[in-house]
Design goal:
single chain, about 110 residues, seven-stranded mixed sheet, globular
Amino acid sequence: RKAGLPVEIEQDCNVYCSELDPGSSVRLDLKGGRQAYALCVEGSLCAADGAGGGAASCELVRHDAAEVRGEGTLQFTAGSEGAHLLLLEMAAGPGGRGPGKWPLHLG
């Protein structure tokens, strides 16, 4: 275990946690060769392609999750009660469900 690190997972993964006030947003740039898994822990939120135009979006409520693949900017906006978001961004790998099987595909 490395000093100063409370959790070590031995994977190429970044873990983000956010508590969002009603109507507030956070963004994440998803680079090529990366994928993400988003979990709405509490409340509700809209997960969308941050490029705008409504190309890809979905509503997530308590305990809903989404796999996100493709390069682009993700934007998560909390609903009227706010939201707790857990987001894991990792190296893209084989598997997943492919376009049309999960709510959000960028690119």
